[in-house]
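Re: that backbone. Tokens:
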């Protein structure tokens, strides 16, 4: 006898490999041929793929689902992750320069997560903020292709910043996996 539960059933859209998010022909991260050439291109490719993964984990959800919190007392949600990563992208530009820091996008500490409310305008703004901040950070770093170059007040190397960017998105994609599975049961890498 099956018991009633409020937990969604686990499922995947993929049919070729059931542990994947999408079939290889439908996965924008799946490429044929040789990988990128060189360290910088490799880091940029991994960053692009993790950014794409985060967006994929958010696809097809409404504002309420995107704003749904994980477990108390956490304020983490998919929408919060989008806002957090926009904030982080902005902060990384502070690492590059000796100028005064850019102001926070969302205000006080943890406002990126706390302000992730189930309103379509907040969702739209989060996607717009993230795209704008990613483009600005990418453009700022494009001026510094030497991975060993040291930037900003703390003399952080471009390499360290690039690796940190990949790590930040990878860690939060792991959170997104769990958040999405709790929302509608969809699983996959």
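Recovered sequence:
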């Amino acid at each position: 006898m099956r018991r009633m539960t409020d937990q969604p059933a686990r499922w995947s859209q993929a049919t070729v490999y059931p542990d994947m998010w999408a079939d290889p022909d439908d996965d924008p991260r799946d490429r044929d041929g040789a990988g990128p050439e060189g360290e910088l291109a490799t880091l940029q490719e991994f960053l692009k793929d993790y950014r794409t993964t985060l967006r994929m984990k958010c696809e097809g959800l409404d504002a309420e689902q995107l704003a749904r919190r994980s477990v108390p007392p956490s304020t983490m949600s998919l929408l919060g992750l989008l806002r957090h990563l926009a904030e982080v992208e902005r902060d990384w530009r502070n690492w590059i320069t000796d100028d005064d820091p850019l102001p926070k996008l969302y205000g006080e500490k943890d406002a990126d997560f706390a302000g992730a409310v189930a309103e379509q305008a907040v969702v739209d703004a989060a996607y717009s903020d993230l795209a704008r901040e990613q483009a600005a950070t990418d453009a700022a770093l494009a001026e510094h292709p030497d991975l060993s170059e040291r930037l900003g007040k703390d003399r952080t190397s471009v390499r360290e910043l690039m690796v940190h960017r990949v790590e930040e998105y990878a860690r939060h994609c792991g959170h997104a996996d769990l958040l999405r599975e709790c929302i509608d049961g969809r699983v996959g890498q």
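The chain has a mean pLDDT of 91. Strands lie at 150-151, 156-157.
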